[in-house]
Amino acid sequence: LKRVLSGIQPSGHLHIGNYFGMIKRAIEWQDKAQTLYFIADYHALTSIKDPQNLRQYVRKIAMAFLACGLDPIKSIFFRQSSIPEVHELAWILASITPFGLLERSHSFKDKIAKGLSPTLALFSYPVLMSADILLYQSEIIPVGQDQKQHLEIARDIAQKFNNTYGEVFRIPEPDIQEEVAVIPGIDGQKMSKSYNNTLEIFGDPQEFKRKVMSIKTDSTPIAAPKPIQGSILASLYKLVAQPSEYEEFIESMKKGGQGYAYYKKLLLEKLNAYFKPIRERYKELECNPGYVDEVLADGAYRARLISQETIRKVRQAVGLLD
Ligand code: ATP
Ligand code: MG
């Protein structure tokens, strides 16, 4: 069985970009591979500085992933910080990682441009992410387009390690799907927890509506045909509608006669219908906090069996173990 791994940061509330870009495919892999999914709480420290918030987000992201269909029997579901070996590996990998490789990171530059503080941890994020992947000998990594470069860095580091110390790591491959590679946020940029442009799946319904109604459009008059190219409304509608419904939506926009509010309402209805069962499961999980703790504890136990085996090999390979 192939080993599939992915993670999500508890850096805010789960949004539809996370869902379509990663989670949905992660869930599909459960029946075809050995799957490991984790809550990247160490990574989230780069943006969340309030401990109470971090605790809350961890819990909410865990419930969200479960509500979306993560099966804790099929998948190993755990918190990144439950596995201390990841830091030992990150250090060892950092020792062979060229500085220049990280200096080229788009994600680092984007996040600084968005006002995150340029800490050492934010800079070395791709090294910790490489450790996340390599520690579990993962082969397939379902992610969004924004992670493509990080995956390339992880591959480079794995290759460099293997060339330096002998074959220890499998070389991971990204699983990125073009149609859902970059889900736009309500402002048209990549939807991101830290960009304040998200449609949160499990938030307040009124707020959800307000955000859908505030999706960025141009000022085309009501009667005029609407541009499809680059339309955030059309791209989001496509995710949650049947192909024939999507065709109708596009045809109607091309024809004109309706204002944007009309299309926003159609989108809102479709989104709500799509996420209804998932939101119901989330509500049930909210009533059962003990269950979430148990799942994460069991996942940590299972993940650690793998991580300890890898770290032993790594120590031996580099000369930290006789
Ligand atoms: P942050 O802003 O804190 O980085 P995020 O919203 O980018 O948060 P992450 O936890 O970094 O979310 O990413 C989790 C997964 O979701 C990753 O695989 C990432 O590629 C994917 N993802 C995030 N945003 C999008 C998006 N807009 N479109 C497609 N995939 C996305
Ligand atoms: Mg991100």
UniProtKB/TrEMBL annotation:
Q: What is its EC number?
A: 6.1.1.2
PROSITE patterns xref list: AA_TRNA_LIGASE_I
GO molecular function term, any single one: tryptophan-tRNA ligase activity
Principal place of residence:
cytoplasm
Name the residue ranges of motif: 'HIGH' region: 10-18
Tell me the InterPro entries matching this sequence: aa-tRNA-synth_I_CS, aa-tRNA-synth_Ic, Rossmann-like_a/b/a_fold, Trp-tRNA-ligase, Trp-tRNA-ligase_bac-type, Trp-tRNA_synthetase
Q: Does the keyword Thylakoid apply?
A: no
Mind listing the UniProt keywords for this protein, alphabetically? Answer: Aminoacyl-tRNA synthetase, ATP-binding, Cytoplasm, Ligase, Nucleotide-binding, Protein biosynthesis
Q: How does it assemble?
A: Homodimer.
Biological role stated in the UniProt entry: Catalyzes the attachment of tryptophan to tRNA(Trp).
Mind telling me what this protein is named? Tryptophan--tRNA ligase
The gene name reads trpS
